[in-house]
Amino acid sequence: MKKWNGMLIATLVPFFSFILLFMCVPLLFMLLGSFQVEGGGGWTLDHYAEIFGNPYYTQALQNSMLIACWSAVMGIMVSVFAAYGVTKFPKYVQERILVLTNLTSNFAGIPLAFAFIVLLGNSGLFTLLFRSFGIDLGQSFNLYSWGGLTVIYVYFQLPLGILLLYPIYHGIQEQWKEAATLLGASSYQFWLRIGAPMLLPSIAGTFSIMFANAMGAYATAYALTGSTYNLVPIRISNLVSGDVFARPELGSALATALGLTLVTALLLNEWLTRRIRRDLR
Predict the structure, then answer these.
(1) pTM of the complete model
(2) Which of 7, 192, 235, 237 is the most buried (most CB within 10 A)?
(3) Which residues in the chain belong to E strands, given as ranges?
(4) Which sign, positive or negative, has the C-alpha torsion 136, 142, 143, 144?
(5) Tens of pLDDT along 52-91?
(6) Digit-coded pLDDT (tens) for 81-95
């Protein structure tokens, strides 16, 4: 028994070392850096005062929350029906769809932005194709605008939403549907009064994960629009790397504010989920 415990501890050492070195230590340095005077030598709250007092940074927070919220709402609405549709296919087809969805969920960042530029950019494949038919796609849709950025965000949210929502439909038992049918309930009434309330906590949890996923997205937005749109991850990158001069302490404070936003969203989701489950009892 002691031998097995020793082996178990030995296998956990690399895992906890990884967590400590690549999560805890950077987080600690980020928190400490956010309270340090630029260049070191003292402690201050000026960085947080600048973030919440400077319209430039408050706009970045508002823009990030806005695009994260919109992409999560649109993504969850499509994912709910798409995941349900996947469950209607035969088992072997479902497995292949899930493999494809898993692959596309990892297709993000710069490759995703490049793919959209190739397809829908100013000289993209579909842009030129529609133009050859006399349709100027650029008059109604601009990939490099806020709308184009939202479309890409929704695109990389969809596979994540489908993967997270797919298992919850297996919690809806066929016996429930049969019992509801025997009692005279229609399919619409079953989903309205039984199915939807059962799925709601999981949908709320998936929404919070998609919101956090969009809030932290950096590479796709930067590859597509550069610094044109004022988003928090891009501002943090500019403050840390510095186009002219770096301000890593202010970047740490902005990253801390971003992290607090995500933690607040997760806590709200946890509270909402518990309340829904309590009401269902």
Answers:
(1) 0.84
(2) 235
(3) none
(4) positive
(5) 888 989 999 999 999 999 999 999 999 999 999 998 899 8
(6) 999 999 889 989 999
Task: Write the DSSP symbol of residue 43.
Answer: B
Q: What angle do CA 275, 280, 281 make, to 5 degrees?
A: 105
Nearest alpha-carbon partner for 79 in 159, 3, 149, 148: 159
Name 223's Cβ contacts closer than 8 Å, sequence gap at least 6.
109, 110, 113, 114
The amino acid at residue 44 is T
Neighbours of 257 (CB within 10 A): 20
CB 83 within 8 A of CB 226: no
CA nearest neighbour of 251 among 261, 240, 262: 240
DSSP conformation letters of 119-145: HHSTT-HHHHHHHHTT--GGGT--TTS
Residue 15 to residue 169: CA distance in whole angstroms: 33
Tokens at 15, concatenated: 């895992």
Q: pLDDT at position 269, please?
A: 77
Structure tokens at 99: 């493999």
For 3-19, the DSSP string reads: HHHHHHHHHHHHHHHHH
> Which pLDDT score, from 0 to 100, does residue 243 have?
60
Is residue 150 a contact partner of residue 217, using CB atoms and an 8 Å limit? Answer: no
Rg of the Cα atoms in the chain:
23
- Measured CA to CA, the distance from residue 98 to residue 166 in angstroms comes to 9
Q: How far apart are CA 229 and CA 147, in angstroms?
A: 12
- The whole-angstrom separation of Cα 79 and Cα 161 is 5
